[in-house]
Amino acid sequence: MDDEHLFDSVCAVLSRRGFEPAPPQAAGLSVRLRPRTGLVLGWRPGEDLIGPTLHACPHPADAAGRTEFRGIRTALMLALSEVLGDAGFTVTALGDDLLVTAGPHDPGTVPTPTAAPTCPAPRRSRPARQVAAA
What we know:
Strand content: 15-25%
Strand order of the largest sheet: 1-2-4-3
Order of helices and strands: HEEHHEE
Shape: globular
Number of helices: 3
Largest sheet: 4 strands, antiparallel
Structural class: alpha+beta
């Protein structure tokens, strides 16, 4: 499976399963092409999550000074591994990220892209506010 087909196939599976990859350099789920190797999936929390959460409960910072949200990252990566593995891809942990390659069963074809390969733009929604019990 070539790089473009892999990218399109993974984005199609993610979209069908309700995952919305963010545009490059944005917070959220990222899908980056690593030529001739596969795709790297990662996640970065956005300010919409960091601000309200840090006010409620401080978290340790990572080496870059950003909040880790280790539990959310772990749950998301586990869910992505299951979804993509069930679709026939090979998924390998790569530090905090995932490396996705074509598996023993090609997950099928997707429509030919009409533009540069990008995953669908995320829909923006406001996070639910949590009200502390008094």
